[in-house]
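Structure ticket #2291
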Amino acid sequence: MYHVLVAADTEMEEPEKLAATVTEIHDAGADVEATVINVFESFEVTGAESGTVDSDDVFDPEAFPDTVVAVRDALHAAGIDTSAVRRHGDVAEEILAAADEFDADLVVLGGRKRSPVGKALFGSVAQTVLLEADRPVMVARTE
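Resolution: structure written out below.
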Protein backbone atom coordinates (compact mmCIF):
# COMPACT_ATOMS: atom_id res chain seq x y z
CA MET A 1 0.00 0.00 0.00
CA TYR A 2 1.35 3.42 -1.00
CA HIS A 3 0.52 5.95 1.72
CA VAL A 4 0.22 9.63 0.79
CA LEU A 5 0.07 12.38 3.41
CA VAL A 6 -1.87 15.30 1.95
CA ALA A 7 -1.38 18.63 3.73
CA ALA A 8 -4.42 20.84 3.23
CA ASP A 9 -4.60 24.39 4.51
CA THR A 10 -7.48 26.84 4.70
CA GLU A 11 -6.08 29.18 2.02
CA MET A 12 -6.46 26.86 -0.98
CA GLU A 13 -8.70 28.29 -3.67
CA GLU A 14 -9.18 24.96 -5.45
CA PRO A 15 -8.68 22.06 -3.04
CA GLU A 16 -9.88 19.61 -5.69
CA LYS A 17 -6.58 20.21 -7.52
CA LEU A 18 -4.72 18.87 -4.51
CA ALA A 19 -6.95 15.80 -4.50
CA ALA A 20 -6.47 15.36 -8.27
CA THR A 21 -2.71 15.05 -7.75
CA VAL A 22 -3.22 12.04 -5.48
CA THR A 23 -5.96 10.63 -7.70
CA GLU A 24 -3.50 10.59 -10.63
CA ILE A 25 -1.16 8.34 -8.62
CA HIS A 26 -4.11 6.04 -7.89
CA ASP A 27 -5.23 6.08 -11.53
CA ALA A 28 -1.71 5.11 -12.63
CA GLY A 29 -2.25 1.78 -10.91
CA ALA A 30 -0.81 2.29 -7.45
CA ASP A 31 -2.73 0.93 -4.48
CA VAL A 32 -3.06 4.24 -2.63
CA GLU A 33 -4.33 5.23 0.78
CA ALA A 34 -4.29 8.83 1.97
CA THR A 35 -4.30 10.81 5.17
CA VAL A 36 -5.36 14.44 4.83
CA ILE A 37 -3.79 16.63 7.51
CA ASN A 38 -4.62 20.16 8.56
CA VAL A 39 -2.51 21.99 11.12
CA PHE A 40 -3.93 24.78 13.24
CA GLU A 41 -0.95 27.03 13.82
CA SER A 42 -0.04 27.90 17.41
CA PHE A 43 -0.42 31.50 18.49
CA GLU A 44 -0.77 33.67 21.54
CA VAL A 45 -2.32 37.15 21.58
CA THR A 46 -2.17 39.47 24.54
CA GLY A 47 -4.48 42.47 24.77
CA ALA A 48 -4.85 45.07 27.49
CA GLU A 49 -8.60 44.52 27.88
CA SER A 50 -9.02 40.90 26.88
CA GLY A 51 -6.00 39.34 28.54
CA THR A 52 -4.21 36.50 26.79
CA VAL A 53 -5.77 34.26 24.17
CA ASP A 54 -3.83 31.12 23.35
CA SER A 55 -4.44 28.90 20.34
CA ASP A 56 -4.98 26.00 22.76
CA ASP A 57 -8.14 27.79 23.91
CA VAL A 58 -9.74 27.80 20.45
CA PHE A 59 -8.33 24.68 18.76
CA ASP A 60 -10.91 21.99 18.02
CA PRO A 61 -9.42 18.77 16.59
CA GLU A 62 -12.80 17.78 15.15
CA ALA A 63 -13.52 21.09 13.35
CA PHE A 64 -12.15 20.35 9.89
CA PRO A 65 -11.97 23.33 7.51
CA ASP A 66 -14.03 23.11 4.31
CA THR A 67 -10.86 22.65 2.27
CA VAL A 68 -9.95 19.50 4.21
CA VAL A 69 -13.46 18.10 3.81
CA ALA A 70 -13.33 18.83 0.06
CA VAL A 71 -9.99 17.04 -0.38
CA ARG A 72 -11.03 14.08 1.78
CA ASP A 73 -14.37 13.69 -0.02
CA ALA A 74 -12.80 13.96 -3.49
CA LEU A 75 -10.24 11.27 -2.65
CA HIS A 76 -12.90 9.03 -1.16
CA ALA A 77 -15.08 9.51 -4.26
CA ALA A 78 -12.11 8.41 -6.40
CA GLY A 79 -12.00 5.13 -4.50
CA ILE A 80 -9.03 5.99 -2.29
CA ASP A 81 -9.15 4.88 1.35
CA THR A 82 -8.88 8.25 3.08
CA SER A 83 -8.77 9.55 6.64
CA ALA A 84 -8.33 13.06 8.00
CA VAL A 85 -6.48 14.39 11.04
CA ARG A 86 -6.17 17.83 12.54
CA ARG A 87 -3.15 18.89 14.55
CA HIS A 88 -2.09 21.94 16.52
CA GLY A 89 1.37 23.49 16.56
CA ASP A 90 4.08 24.54 14.13
CA VAL A 91 2.72 23.66 10.69
CA ALA A 92 5.90 22.29 9.11
CA GLU A 93 6.90 20.37 12.25
CA GLU A 94 3.46 18.76 12.52
CA ILE A 95 3.44 17.75 8.83
CA LEU A 96 6.89 16.17 9.18
CA ALA A 97 5.88 14.39 12.40
CA ALA A 98 2.71 13.05 10.76
CA ALA A 99 4.73 11.80 7.79
CA ASP A 100 6.78 9.75 10.24
CA GLU A 101 3.77 8.67 12.29
CA PHE A 102 1.83 7.40 9.27
CA ASP A 103 4.96 6.13 7.51
CA ALA A 104 3.99 8.15 4.44
CA ASP A 105 5.65 7.24 1.16
CA LEU A 106 4.93 10.71 -0.22
CA VAL A 107 3.95 14.10 1.20
CA VAL A 108 1.79 16.31 -1.02
CA LEU A 109 1.56 20.03 -0.28
CA GLY A 110 -0.54 22.71 -1.93
CA GLY A 111 1.32 25.50 -3.66
CA ARG A 112 0.24 28.96 -4.70
CA LYS A 113 1.11 31.26 -7.54
CA ARG A 114 3.91 33.49 -6.29
CA SER A 115 6.05 36.43 -7.33
CA PRO A 116 9.50 35.63 -8.80
CA VAL A 117 11.05 35.92 -5.33
CA GLY A 118 8.27 33.82 -3.83
CA LYS A 119 8.79 31.17 -6.48
CA ALA A 120 12.44 30.93 -5.53
CA LEU A 121 11.67 30.63 -1.84
CA PHE A 122 8.35 28.74 -1.94
CA GLY A 123 6.44 29.40 1.24
CA SER A 124 8.04 28.98 4.60
CA VAL A 125 6.06 25.80 5.32
CA ALA A 126 6.67 24.27 1.89
CA GLN A 127 10.33 25.21 2.01
CA THR A 128 10.82 23.70 5.46
CA VAL A 129 9.04 20.47 4.55
CA LEU A 130 10.97 20.17 1.26
CA LEU A 131 14.31 20.71 2.98
CA GLU A 132 13.74 18.62 6.09
CA ALA A 133 11.65 15.68 4.86
CA ASP A 134 13.31 12.28 4.68
CA ARG A 135 10.89 11.14 1.97
CA PRO A 136 9.62 12.49 -1.37
CA VAL A 137 7.60 15.71 -1.26
CA MET A 138 5.40 16.95 -4.11
CA VAL A 139 4.08 20.50 -4.36
CA ALA A 140 0.81 20.71 -6.29
CA ARG A 141 -0.59 23.99 -7.53
CA THR A 142 -3.94 24.67 -5.89
CA GLU A 143 -5.09 27.85 -7.61
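Closing remark: Strands lie at 2-7, 32-41, 44-47, 51-54, 81-89, 106-111, 137-141.
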